[in-house]
Specification:
By secondary structure, the protein is α/β, with parallel strands linked by helices. It has two domains: 3-159, 3-Layer(aba) Sandwich (Rossmann fold), CATH 3.40.50; 167-287, Orthogonal Bundle (N-(1-d-carboxylethyl)-l-norvaline Dehydrogenase, domain 2), CATH 1.10.1040. The protein is built from twelve helices and seven strands. The chain has helices spanning 13-22, 42-48, 63-75, 91-101, 118-121, 131-144, 162-191, 197-203, 213-224, 240-250, 256-268, 274-287; strands at 3-7, 26-30, 54-57, 81-84, 106-113, 124-128, 154-158. The protein has a seven-stranded mixed β-sheet, with helices on both faces. The longest helix is centred in the middle third of the chain and has 30 residues, at 162-191. The mean pLDDT is 94. It comes from Saccharomonospora viridis. One of its GO terms (molecular function) is NADP binding.
C-alpha cells in the first residue's frame, strides 16, 4: 500500500480518490469544500503524510494551480514529489518544475483522460518528467489506468511538459471527433430521408469503422432526449483546442479539422443549431461539463 495526498476533489479528483482507495492505497484528500475534504488545509494534508511524500494536484488550470504549487513548495521537503494532473498549458510545467526543484522536490505533469467515467472505466495517462519520478509514482498510475496492457492506457511521453503537451493534442483531436459526429447527426435529422436518427447512430456502435466511446455517449444522450431539445446549442472551450492550434501554427502543421471544430464552438455562442446541441450533450456525457438548458414556461 502506498500513500498519496490528493488536492482538488471535484468531478475527476473525487473519483480518482475513490478508485485509488479501492486499489488499496491510502489517500488523504484536500478540497476547499469541507464536505468532501479529509483535512482542513494544505498544511494538514502534508502533515498527514509520511516522508517522502507524493502529492497529486487536480485543481483548475491557471492561477489556482500556480498558487497551489507555490504553497506546496513552502510546505514540502526535499525528496518529496508533486504530480500536476490538471489541464495546464505545457509551457507552465517548466516553471513549476524549476520552483519545486530549487527545494529538491520532484515534479511530474500528467495529462488525465477519462472524465466522470474514470472511476469505473479507468483513466488514460500521459506523463512528463524524469524516469525515476515516473517509476516512483507507478503504483498510483497502475491503480488509475484501465485493466490490460499498460502501454494501451499509459505513456511516459518525455520530459517535463510532455504529458500536458500530449493531453493538449488529445483534446484537440477530441474537438474534431465530436464535431464530426455532431454534423452527421444534424445531416441525418435535416434530410428527411432517415426516420430513426437515434437508431442509426445506435447501429453504428458495433462493426462500423466510426464506432467509438464518444459515439456511445452520443447514443446515450439521444436515448434521454431524442432531439436534444432540452439543450441550448452553446458550447464552451476550455483552452486546449486553442493551444493545439497555436502549436500547429508554430510548427507549420495543417490542422483544418481541429480549427473548424474550434470555430464551430465560437459560432455556437451566436446561433442555435442541432450540431452544437450534440456537442454540448457529448461534453456533458463524458466530462460532466456544465451545459445550458432551455428555459420553459
Amino acid at each position: 500500500m502506498a500513500q498519496l495526498g490528493l488536492i482538488g476533489l471535484g468531478k475527476m479528483g473525487f473519483n480518482m480518490r475513490e478508485r485509488l482507495r479501492e486499489a488499496g492505497h491510502r489517500v488523504v484528500g484536500y478540497d476547499r469544500n469541507a464536505e468532501v475534504s479529509d483535512v482542513a488545509s494544505l498544511a494538514d494534508l502534508v502533515a498527514a503524510l509520511e516522508a517522502p511524500r507524493v502529492v497529486w494536484v487536480m485543481v483548475p488550470a491557471g492561477a489556482a494551480t500556480r498558487q497551489t504549487i507555490t504553497e506546496l513548495a513552502e510546505l514540502l521537503d526535499e525528496g518529496d514529489l508533486v504530480i500536476e494532473g490538471g489541464n495546464s498549458r505545457y509551457t507552465e510545467d517548466a516553471e513549476h518544475a524549476e520552483l519545486l526543484g530549487r527545494r529538491g522536490i520532484g515534479y511530474l505533469d500528467v495529462g488525465v483522460s477519462g472524465g466522470v467515467w474514470g472511476k469505473e472505466n479507468g483513466y488514460g495517462l500521459m506523463v512528463g518528467g524524469s524516469t525515476a519520478d515516473v517509476e516512483r509514482a507507478m503504483p498510483f498510475f497502475d491503480a488509475l489506468r484501465p485493466e490490460g496492457p499498460r502501454e494501451e492506457s499509459f505513456v511516459h511521453a518525455g520530459g517535463v511538459g510532455a504529458g500536458h503537451y500530449a493531453k493538449m493534442v488529445h483534446n484537440g483531436i477530441e474537438y474534431g471527433l465530436m464535431q464530426a459526429y455532431a454534423e452527421g447527426f444534424e445531416l441525418l435529422e435535416a434530410s428527411g430521408v432517415v426516420q430513426d436518427v437515434p437508431g442509426v447512430l445506435k447501429a453504428w456502435q458495433r462493426g462500423t469503422v466510426v464506432r467509438s466511446w464518444l459515439l456511445e455517449l452520443l447514443v446515450e444522450a439521444l436515448e434521454n432526449d431524442p432531439e436534444l431539445a432540452e439543450l441550448e446549442a452553446y458550447v464552451e472551450d476550455s483552452g486546449e483546442g486553442r493551444w493545439t492550434l497555436e502549436e500547429a501554427i508554430d510548427n507549420a502543421v495543417p490542422a483544418p479539422v481541429i480549427s473548424a471544430a474550434l470555430f464551430a464552438r465560437f459560432a455556437s455562442r451566436q446561433e442555435n443549431s442541432p450540431a452544437m446541441r450534440a456537442v454540448a450533450a457529448l461534453r456533458k456525457q463524458f466530462g460532466g461539463h456544465t451545459v445550458k438548458t432551455k428555459v420553459t414556461d
